[in-house]
Amino acid sequence: MSTSTLPAMKTNPKFVFFTDFDGTITQSDSNDYLTDTLGMGTELRKKGNQDVLFDRKSFRQSFGEMMHSVSETTPYDKCIDILLKNIKLDVGFRDFLEWSTAQNVPVVVLSSGMEPIIRALLVHLIGPLANDIQIVSNTVAPRDGKSINEVGGWEIVFHDESHFGHDKSREIRPYKALPQEERPTMFYAGDGVSDLSAAKETDLLFAKKGHDLVNYCVRENVPFEVFEDWSSILSTVQSIVAGKATVQEVVARGLEEVKSGNA
Ligand SMILES: [Mg+2]
């Protein structure tokens, strides 16, 4: 595939940063927040996540049920209003974005959430700098002949037919397949079950401390570096971009941390 067809290759970057949105760029997960406070509640939501982790349900099925339970109580515009008041940006992400924009390191959001919510939150939390971020995600549509801004009037529309609903690896693979001289070094940051499809695809994976993705990567032997917020991601990526560290060194360091129990 020619680079011109890949959105993040427009500026011929040497590095591309793919990232999850909910719970990774934000401090808490907006879909969890909706499900816990307006939908089926925390207990059933956690059970749904466990079902996915242990292969009892697909992510698509479990997450679809969660969003359906929110739609049954709350119009879509009301959901966005509530999230704008309650979801905060993760520490250090703004600094990371300013640096990456200046350094020609495109940031691509790969999300299992819905595009209108993600764009509204990004613009609200970051401002105009967020307009250039590419978002690849699910979206929303009316249902039962209603408007999305009525109770029971919206439903999630999945990005693809995979059991993930949005198979994040599909967006990354064409970049991996580029000829060696064009292929950028790729990073990915994530925190949870929606990131399982992407976890093995990039050169360096950052997994958020204390979250499901860490457990999954340990279990599946997927190398990663643990992060608590974006300040450590920024310093690691800066050192790689500046040639002071290699991806291989960082991966080896991550494996040591897991072995010593610090992850
Ligand atoms: Mg997440």
From TrEMBL:
Coiled coil regions, renumbered to chain: none
Keyword Hydrolase applies: yes
Keywords noted in UniProt: Hydrolase
InterPro entries in alphabetical order: HAD-like_hydrolase_phosphatase (IPR050849), HAD-like_sf (IPR036412), HAD_hydro_PyrdxlP_Pase-like (IPR006384), HAD_sf (IPR023214)
Any one Gene Ontology molecular-function term assigned to this protein's record: phosphatase activity
Family matches, as NCBIfam families: DKMTPPase-SF, HAD-SF-IB
Official protein name in the record: Putative 2-hydroxy-3-keto-5-methylthiopentenyl-1-phosphate phosphatase
Organism, scientific name: Coleophoma cylindrospora
Native organism taxonomy: Eukaryota, Fungi, Dikarya, Ascomycota, Pezizomycotina
